[in-house]
Amino acid sequence: MLAAFLNNLAIAYKRLHRYTMAHEVLQQGESINMELNPGPDNVQQAGLYMTMALNSSYIGRVDEGIALLRQSLDCITRFEGMSLRSARVLVNLAILYDRNKDYVPALAKASTAVDELVAARGKDFPSALRAMRVKARCEMHLDRRQDAKSLLEGVLTIMADGHSKEDLAETKALVVEVITGMGLVDEARKLAIEVGEYLSSLDQLDEFQKETMPKLDSLIYEAEGKLALAIVSQKEVIAILTTVLPDVSWYVTAARERL
């Protein structure tokens, strides 16, 4: 019970962008859970590993996050085999591999997750659509942009009815990233305007939504050869992210690398 409370407290700290505090609380939760449940890892421990892993990249510990997710996956598959829970871990593992620029294993994990989630719940299952977006990002990073574009077009077709503006904006923003790298700059600019319209219609934006438009502007300006404008937009991205994230965060580090 106490370990579960600490896990929830850590999630609350994470929502407040207090990632270092969340990490410390999670470590306390892990220690308590191991004392209360000695022996092999259990499913509760697997959930704790997942929360710890997702917090790790926010404080610049992507390798640690990958290791924790692998422990979580091993634990879940030992008790449940392949399941919705293990498929969700695979999605997050793909995300962290991708952040670590390990694109081949990232794509493999994302592909398996898509297959498992679609087989279990169908293509319109929200977790399946999220897994498809992750897979498309991995394909983009492996320069399989046409495959990524086709996959995302399929996602948008599925999402045409009844999906949130947040999900539509996220998916179309990823399409902009993909097609900008294919040289389809005019198409990318038009789609970026649609993304901006979706975001402007939302009541409140989190920091990652706030950085979407300057991030897309930076990519498009760079593709157009307008490097000064690209740099201005990228500096805006960094300014937004550093208001809530530590400098060692993967997000901030990746944004600075683009400069």
Summary of the model, kept short:
This protein has 259 residues and is an all-alpha fold. It contains 14 helices and no strands. The mean pLDDT is 88.
Topology:
Layout: H1 2-15, H2 19-36, H3 43-56, H4 62-80, H5 84-99, H6 103-121, H7 126-141, H8 145-158, H9 165-180, H10 185-200, H11 207-210, H12 212-223, H13 227-241, H14 250-258
Helix pairs in contact: 1-2, 1-3, 2-3, 3-4, 4-5, 5-6, 5-7, 6-7, 7-8, 8-9, 9-10, 9-12, 10-12, 12-13, 13-14
Textual characterization of the structure:
By secondary structure, this protein is mainly alpha-helical. Helices cover 78% and strands 0% of the residues. It is built from 14 helices and no strands. The chain has helices at residues 2-15, 19-36, 43-56, 62-80, 84-99, 103-121, 126-141, 145-158, 165-180, 185-200, 207-210, 212-223, 227-241, 250-258. Helix 5 (84-99) runs parallel beside helix 7 (126-141). The longest helix is centred in the first third of the chain and has 19 residues, at 62-80. The chain is globular and about 60 Å long. 41% of the residues are buried.
Which short descriptors sum up this protein?
259 residues; mainly alpha; globular; single chain
Question: What's the order of the H and E elements?
Answer: HHHHHHHHHHHHHH
Distance between the termini: 46 Å
Structural class comes to mainly alpha
Poorly predicted regions: none
**Strand runs, count:** 0
Give the proportion of residues in helices: over 70%
Based on CA atoms alone, the radius of gyration comes out at 19 Å
Largest sheet: none
SS field, number of helical segments = 14
Instruction: Give average pLDDT, whole number.
Output: 88
Shape: globular
What fraction of residues sit in β-strands? Answer: under 5%
